[in-house]
Amino acid sequence: MEVILKEDVTKLGSRGDVVKVADGFGRNYLLPRKLAIEASAGNKKVIKQMKAAAVRRSAKEKAQAEELSKQFDGLSVSFTRRSGEHDQLFGSVTSGDIAESLSKKGFDIDRRKIQLHEPLKTLGEFSVPVKLHKDVTTHLKVVIEKEATE
Prior knowledge:
By secondary structure, the protein is α+β, with helices and mostly antiparallel strands. The chain has helices at 23-30, 41-72, 95-104; strands spanning 2-5, 18-20, 36-38, 76-81, 88-93, 120-122, 124-133, 136-146.
């Protein structure tokens, strides 16, 4: 039996793939759980159109991400934080703080796209990767300065 997968199925294929499966597996597992549809000529045509639209949409998103990446060149965000001895911060700078600072500069970047593995806890300059698209990653300069004490 041939089916078109509607979702990614482990060890079988990804969404939109046309795969051959045993009749029982298709009828008793994939079709009732709406993980697949039968591979009729009409369904194959619809899936082909959906894949073409997805490719166009992905190319458009990639172009927008590359344009945004160019705007990030030379951009930096600065934070002023209190610190103790050995330049350790009281608190930290997180991806949420960086995203908030970027939004104040006019960039709407989701904090999950800022690939900060752990919060920044020391003074200094850091290069933080920002994943704008699955194929486009840029780096943002983050500067953490010591707050003046009176």
